[in-house]
Amino acid sequence: MILEKLKEIIADHSGEEADTITPETKFADLGIDSLTTVEILMDIEDEFGVSLEAGQIGTTVGELIAKIEEA
Questions:
Q1: Closest CA to 40 of 66, 11, 4
Q2: Of 25, 30, 44, 57, which one has the greatest count of Cβ atoms within 10 A?
Q3: Spatial separation of the C-alpha atoms in residues 19 and 71, rounded to whole Å
């Protein structure tokens, strides 16, 4: 499932517990900066085989899931 794997990826880079990350979680609330965003996108490309630009991730985890599903 995309959400579960994405939660792991985001948790690895943000220091948050994966269990606290939901589709409504905002990246800004996790303290994710531009460098961390690029690292997360690289992991997403490896895991899901999709290529996204930093401007495509949206502001919430749910928006990012939608972009992954569209790609």
A1: 11
A2: 44
A3: 26
Structure tokens at 60: 């919430």
Using one digit for the tens of pLDDT, what is the confidence trace for 5-41?
Answer: 999 999 999 999 999 999 999 999 999 999 999 999 9
Write down the residue that tokens 């269990």 correspond to. 19
Point out the catalytic residue in the list 12, 33, 43, 46: 33
pTM of the model: 0.92
Closest C-alpha among 59, 61, 70, 53 to residue 5 = 61
> Residue 33 catalytic?
yes
Distances (CA, A) of 54 to 13, 20, 42: 15, 23, 10
